[in-house]
TrEMBL record:
It comes from the Eukaryota. The keyword Transmembrane does not apply. This is Uncharacterized protein. Residues 72-112 are annotated as: Disordered.
Length: 541
């Protein structure tokens, strides 16, 4: 789950980022609206983290996926029971769910046809990979009479199920075993398990079946990136910009994750800037600018009059496709809202990835109160495990040097940054199973909108987590304990979220399923599904 949209592949290539051009917009209204551009040098490094993969040699994948962001707060409104008072216990690590999926496995539902590769074609390519690694003589041995005497050859599904202790039709066990076989470079077992997995998953099935379909895509993409595989892409019809925006908006409405993050961050910001007349918000991933619409309206109605507000919107080119253009679109949208409310407003556009941003791009002015927002963004910034430059910590130190009034952080509670492939694979399974279950209660399984939203707005992250390594893997989440350590080392101290913010989020969750859980601990808010923490919101100063 990320706060930007993309028409790019899984970021498994070393193509350079494409900068924006000609995003300047003339001043309007009372002259308080300006859009300025700061163009940092654009560069892209590619590296390998050394994790074990079958074969070598990275190729590009061209399947199209996107991630979450909404264009407005209006649209589909789900009908759910009120939020439960049950609690979850947040810990420094990402807690594991201790419940099994409560959905019935309808294994006879149709398998995914649009994005999951044909199993027969995959088997041919896996055999090619097997021959490249082990030599053609092993392939001959499998077909010879003597192969029946080899104890390591598992000729039937029943044989390998017994050896692995997998019950027939146990989808979760097959998903886990498949990832383990890939991690251990067991080509023959991988071929058998992928074939089995392809018969069990479906994009119109229960949550685990749907998740399994996209995890299968990730495994296929991972295998396809090496050896003599001829497989080039996971073909999937690319949506138009308007279609993509509608999918993102749907998920924004049926799941509270983004509203939770935006509302909690805005609550902390509104409290921190009370009585201030000149405010500068620096948003490190502004995407569509949805977060700031309600804050602008709230500041405009502030007793004593609104402040002069300036927003610096940082975003790379990945969000441009969903927006249908550059950051000037965001600036115009926010200006129109501010103008309608009578709030003086300026917008500064910085078309760059977060790790390309330096102080000179932020246009800091004397007398302004500075606020910095990291909503679902920092996990995309490479750290010391990817680059010796460690931009993740550099950005935090740079922000601290600005003496901000408050810094807001919203991140997924998942441990995928530096973990080896198989533990990361299991974490992906655990995290996204909870997310897919939460989506499942909101829309019918045969709802085409839901299938499109999952396919184009969630699958990209899943495939990137499983298929990619090194600089190509941009989904690098950390648990809150790690974020706390990073902020503390950069010189920050906690800025506890108030009870007002907590109560606002509780009211929000009244409109959603009772399995959502909200816990406040030491001024930090944890949003979870059943026993699994999914998102954490905190503030720092």
């Amino acid at each position: 789950m990320s706060a930007r949209a993309s028409n790019h592949a899984y970021i498994c290539s070393d193509d350079s980022q494409i900068p924006y051009y000609n995003n300047s917009v003339p001043s309007g209204g009372n002259g308080r609206f300006y859009i300025t551009q700061n163009h940092p040098d654009v560069h892209c490094a590619s590296s390998d983290d050394g994790s074990q993969k079958i074969g070598s040699g990275l190729q590009t994948f061209e399947a199209q996926y996107c991630t979450l962001e909404s264009s407005s707060a209006n649209g589909v409104h789900p009908a759910h029971s009120s939020a439960s008072s049950h609690s979850i216990s947040p810990i420094s690590g990402s807690p594991l769910s201790h419940h099994d999926s409560h959905s019935d496995h309808t294994y006879n539902s149709p398998p995914s046809a649009s994005c999951v590769t044909e199993i027969a074609d995959l088997q041919v390519k896996l055999r090619e990979l097997e021959n490249a690694i082990l030599g053609p003589e092993l392939d001959i041995a499998y077909d010879s009479p003597e192969s029946s005497l080899q104890p390591n050859v598992m000729a039937t599904p029943e044989n390998w199920r017994q050896l692995l202790g997998i019950n027939t039709g146990d989808l979760k066990q097959v998903i886990i075993a498949c990832g383990k076989a890939v991690a251990e470079n067991d080509v023959r077992l991988t071929e058998l398990l992928i074939s089995e997995l392809g018969q069990l998953v479906s994009v119109s099935g229960d949550p685990l079946q749907r998740l399994g379909a996209y995890m299968l895509e990730g495994l296929v993409a991972r295998l396809s990136s090496s050896g003599s595989m001829l497989y080039k892409s996971l073909k999937c019809k690319e949506p138009t910009s308007s279609e993509l925006m509608s999918y993102m908006h749907l998920l924004y409405e049926i799941c509270p994750f983004f509203k939770f993050g935006y509302m909690s961050a805005n609550g902390a910001i509104a409290e921190a800037i009370k009585g201030e007349n000149f405010v500068h918000i620096i948003d490190f991933q502004i995407a569509q600018g949805s977060q700031w619409m309600t804050l602008i309206q709230a500041l405009a109605a502030r007793p004593g009059g609104p402040p002069c507000l300036r927003i610096t919107g940082i975003d790379d080119s990945n969000s441009a496709y969903a927006r249908g253009g550059g950051l000037d679109i965001v600036g115009r949208r926010l200006f129109n809202i501010a103008q309608s409310c009578g709030l003086p407003f300026e917008f500064n556009a910085v078309p760059a990835a977060s790790h390309e941003v330096y102080l000179e791009h932020l246009d800091i002015r004397h007398g302004e109160v500075i606020v910095v927002n990291f909503a679902y963004q920092l996990h995309h910034t490479p750290d010391e495990s990817v680059s010796t430059e460690n931009h993740r910590d550099r950005i935090l130190r740079m922000v601290k040097s600005l003496s901000p009034r408050v810094v807001t952080l919203v991140e997924q509670e998942s441990n995928t940054n530096t973990r080896p492939f198989f533990p990361r694979y299991l974490e992906t399974l655990d995290y996204y199973q909870a997310m897919f279950e939460s989506i499942d209660v909101a829309l019918p399984r045969d709802d085409k909108r839901r299938m499109n939203a999952e396919q184009h707005c969630v699958a990209r992250d899943i495939v990137n987590l499983i298929a990619c390594e090194g600089a190509e893997r941009v989904e690098r989440h950390e648990v809150f304990g790690k974020w706390k350590a990073r902020f503390t080392m950069a010189g920050f101290r906690p800025y506890p979220l108030s009870s007002v913010v907590n109560n606002t989020i509780k009211t929000l969750l009244d409109s959603y399923n009772s399995f959502y859980r909200l816990v406040e601990q030491d001024g930090v808010l944890y949003l979870g599904w059943k026993n699994r923490v999914l998102v954490v919101s905190s503030a720092w100063c």
